[in-house]
Amino acid sequence: MERKKIMTGVLLVAVVLIWGVIILKVVKGSRPAEKPLVENRIKEPVMNESKDSMQLNYRDPFLGEFVRIKEVKKSSQSQAKVIRKEPELPPVPDFTFKGLIGNGVEQRAMVLKNGSLHILGLGEMIGEFKVIGISPELMTVQNGKHKVEVKVR
User: Which residues pair with 22 in a beta bridge?
Assistant: First the structure.
């Protein structure tokens, strides 16, 4: 009986110590850090002119189209080189599509440009854009090979 009391006391002290350490670590970990984790800063910029250094001045590889061209080296071996062709961005219209006017047979678009209202039909031009489609919700215009849909506002 005496031995069980001693063993219980030892185990109780061990459990209290273990839980104390766990609670202490949780409390220390939950407090905000007083110092930033990274304190070392580079005093001078690193300038390395060697050929094997990495330069991060390239464009995103997922933008644009890729075109393969053959390049002939001095050793008369041909090697395929991949060059990215930049995509042409469609021009942005400088006018606002305000709505549709129609009598059932002919539909015309109301367009606001530089503070003045223009009434346009199919095939008519506004600036460098040609009207190729009109509906109550949007107007389709074309500039060269680019088609742009302008929503009503």
Answer: none
User: In whole angstroms, what separates CA 9 from the centre of its chain?
Assistant: 63
CATH number of the domain enclosing 126: 2.30.30
Which of the 8 DSSP states describes residue 136?
S
Q: Which residues of 13-24 are buried (b: 16+ CB within 10 A; e: fewer)?
A: eeeeeeeeeeee
What's the chain's length in residues? 153
In a domain, 107, yes or no: yes
Range of the domain at 132: 96-151
How many structural domains compose the chain?
Answer: 1
Q: State the CB neighbour count (10 A cutoff) for residue 134.
A: 19
Q: Is 70 helix (H, G, I), strand (E, B) or coil?
A: strand
CA distances from 55 to 7, 44, 46, 59 (A): 67, 18, 12, 11
pLDDT at 11: 94
Q: What is the pTM of this model?
A: 0.42
Residue-wise pLDDT for 101-133, tens only, equals: 887 778 888 998 888 888 888 888 888 889 998
DSSP for residue 111? E
The ranges of the chain with pLDDT < 50 are 72, 75-77
